[in-house]
Amino acid sequence: MFPGVFYALLAGFLGAVASSSAKLSLGADYLKGVCETGLKTWGGEERKFRQADETTACDWLHIPLRLLCGGMLFTCNAVMWTFFAKALRYSSSSARATVTTTASNFISSAFLGQLIFGETHAVLWWVGISLTLSGLLVLHKSAPRDAQPTIAKKDE
Q1: What does UniProt give as the signal peptide span (predicted)?
Q2: What pLDDT sits at residue 151?
Q3: Is the pLDDT assigned to residue 150 strictly greater than 80?
Q4: Cα(95)–Cα(117) distance, rounded to whole angstroms?
Q5: Per-residue pLDDT for 132 more than 90?
């Protein structure tokens, strides 16, 4: 049972990383803003990075960063599906693997959203996550049923 839970948790985390990568690669100008803030912080004056046509390094640097995040999106999705398939293989039920992956994805998305984007969630969102985790706990504590019920033969 433990390998199935581990793979399901990892699949959920990778799904959250993939969605964060998608938000970074397709988001408006988030990476460009991060780049400009980084250059100001680490590089001193912004004028050091101005080119002849008055564009900053971030005007072109955000494009490879977005492509890198797009590549991370596809890579994390591929690895996530691999781990989810392994979770299904090693779990006693597909529902257990699915619920564990979903809960892990929600929680990882919350933490990554806070860490990367500074997002906050409403109390109702946390209530929903708590209910999901409670359902997960009930699902994990319940005893699995036999795969095939025994059939009683009639005496003739």
Answers
A1: 1-19
A2: 60
A3: no
A4: 31
A5: no
**Residue 135: both structure tokens together:** 């359902």
CB within 8 A of 134, min separation 6: which ones? none
Is residue 152 one of the residues assigned to a domain? no
d(CA 5, CA 69): 28
Question: pTM (2 decimals)?
Answer: 0.74
- Contact, 17 vs 73, CB < 8 A? no
Q: How far apart are CA 15 and CA 80, in angstroms?
A: 6
Encoded amino acid at 130, one letter: S
Q: Is 149 contained in some domain?
A: no
Q: pLDDT per residue over 33-57, tens digit each?
A: 777 777 777 665 545 445 443 356 7
HEC-encoded secondary structure of the chain: CHHHHHHHHHHHHHHHHHHHHHHHHHCCCHHHHHHHHHHHHHHCCHHHHCCCCCCCCHHHHHHHHHHHHHHHHHHHHHHHHHHHHHHHHHCCCHHHHHHHHHHHHHHHHHHHHHHHHCCCCCHHHHHHHHHHHHHHHHHHHCCCCCCCCCCCCCCC
* CA separation for the pair 59, 36 (Å, rounded): 9
**Domains of the chain: total:** 1
- By residue range, what is the domain housing residue 85? 2-141
